[in-house]
Amino acid sequence: MTRRALSNVLVIALLLGAANCTAAHRFADTSASLQGTSRNAAAELGGTSWQLVKFQGGDDTTLTPDDKTKYTIAFGTDGHASVRIDCNRGRATWKSPGPNQLQLGPLAHTRAMCPPGSLHDRIVKHWAFVRSYVINDGHLFLSLMADGGIYEFEPVSQAGSGNRPGTEGGDATESLENTYWRLTRLGDASVPVASPQREPHLLLNSETRRVGGSGGCNRLMASYELKGDQLTFGQMAGTMMACPEGMETEKAFLEALKQVSRWKIAGQDLELIDGAGNAVARLEARHME
Question: How many CB atoms are located within 10 Å of the residue 286 CB?
């Protein structure tokens, strides 16, 4: 090889090395930028809580909640999110894999039947289709894939966040109304734990003053009257299924509800009390983990 040819080879080698070095630096810069974006998303969303303002559909449909505080999402710094969707509560994972991207994991939630007009079913259906987020003017916007619509949220107001109906004892951490109560005891007898879809439970809706739930087999619903620590249920109505299990519990539960005249909460536990002062049923607040 001539001296000139050898010189040309060296020049080409140096140029290729410089190009590879530049590409490597560009790749590293891009990678760092994406990691920074992910960290920014965690900093933006982690530890924040939001309540629903409205849903704007891709067909220009606009839906607003009757009460913003019944539709909330709180992003934890550990990658988990806690939500309230009208009469139900749930939990899921969340992550941001890229710039303004948002992925919500499967939603585990309670299964109470919310009143007519609720946005519950729509939100549960849309949950898995959230693909991006933007925070603009202090509001959070969650966009669905394929221009399916946008959910607009505002920060949860801390004022009045502890507003709960009065409870006997003063140390209660749960509200009688708008809480999912799972039946644990009837009189002195414990109630076997069933699947979440079949467990006996009650949920008193403060807006409609109606109670819904399950007896362990059939859906239940009725009106209720609440005055201080006094509580009475109207005539229970419900479905008429016959189940291989849970019918005895349901029958006893319905009989107990007829006798209720007072209520008392201590921590996570609710006692339903008859006119003689006996606890005819005990329930506990249930939250998805």
Answer: 18
